[in-house]
């Protein structure tokens, strides 16, 4: 069963923080996007281009069902917690769900550095998505961490402090 689950918008640091947490807790990290890429032998960008977002979401649920049963720190994709079925899957295990929150300005800065994000092409919609999703992330999470202007080490420390409390 997953030991800790990271959720949050693109560019919130789920992969980086997941890796650092995994090192600290000596538990492997599993990145849901990486699992989708591995299982389908295609990049996320190519999947979006070739079969579209709707099909990607189906692949994502299949991957999540597999990932949730593994003894890992699970970093999810930004859209994974949005589907009701995925929320049920995420809540089906006794792992704290950690929401990495960041201001939209911070997110924009971070994702601008990586042009491979498929959703970046529709930047105008991005803020709307961000606002809608943040309510969902917050609702689902056991722990919320604000990451703006914090180093990865500081974020990990803040998570571990709260992790001990719950
Ligand atoms: C998505 C976020 C991405 C990836 C895909 C869709 C989203 O993951 O799953 O591009 O809908 O927000 P990251 O949040 O890890 O970038």
Give a short synopsis of this structure.
Helices cover 57% and strands 11% of the residues. The protein is of the alpha/beta class.
Structure notes:
This protein is α/β, with parallel strands linked by helices and 166 residues long. The protein contains seven helices and five strands, in the order E-H-E-H-H-E-H-E-H-H-E-H. The chain has helices spanning 14-25, 32-40, 44-67, 84-91, 104-112, 123-140, 152-165; strands at 4-7, 29-31, 73-75, 97-101, 143-146. It has a five-stranded parallel β-sheet, with helices on both faces. The chain starts with a strand and ends with a helix. The mean pLDDT is 93. It binds shikimate-3-phosphate (S3P).
What is the helix content? 55-70%
Radius of gyration (CA) equals 15 Å
Q: What hetero molecules are in the model?
A: shikimate-3-phosphate
Strand order across the largest sheet: 2-3-1-4-5
Q: Tell me about the largest β-sheet.
A: 5 strands, parallel
How do the helices and strands follow one another from N- to C-terminus?
EHEHHEHEHHEH
What's the oligomerization state? single chain
- Number of separate helices: 7
Keywords:
single chain, 166 residues, alpha/beta, 5-stranded parallel sheet, 7 helices, 5 strands, 57% helix, globular, binds shikimate-3-phosphate
Helix-strand blueprint:
Layout: E1 4-7, H1 14-25, E2 29-31, H2 32-40, H3 44-67, E3 73-75, H4 84-91, E4 97-101, H5 104-112, H6 123-140, E5 143-146, H7 152-165
Parallel strand pairs: 1-3, 1-4, 2-3, 4-5
Helix pairs in contact: 1-7, 2-3
Shikimate-3-phosphate binds at residues 10, 14, 33, 44, 77-79, 117-119.
């Amino acid at each position: 069963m997953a030991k800790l689950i990271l959720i949050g918008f693109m560019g919130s640091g789920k992969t980086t923080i997941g890796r650092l947490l995994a090192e600290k807790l000596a538990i492997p990290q599993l990145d849901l996007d990486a699992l989708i890429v591995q299982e389908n032998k295609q990049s996320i960008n190519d999947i979006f281009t070739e079969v579209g977002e709707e099909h990607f979401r189906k692949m994502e649920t299949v991957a999540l069902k597999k990932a949730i049963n593994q003894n890992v720190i699970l970093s999810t994709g930004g859209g994974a917690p949005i589907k009701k079925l995925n929320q049920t899957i995420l809540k089906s295990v006794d792992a704290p769900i950690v929401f990495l929150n960041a201001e939209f300005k911070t997110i924009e800065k971070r994702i601008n550095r990586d042009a491979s994000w498929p959703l970046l092409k529709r930047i105008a919609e991005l803020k709307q998505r961000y606002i809608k999703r943040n309510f969902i992330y917050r609702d689902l999470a056991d722990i919320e961490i604000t990451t703006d202007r914090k180093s990865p080490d500081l974020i990990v420390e803040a998570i571990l402090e709260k992790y001990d409390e719950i």
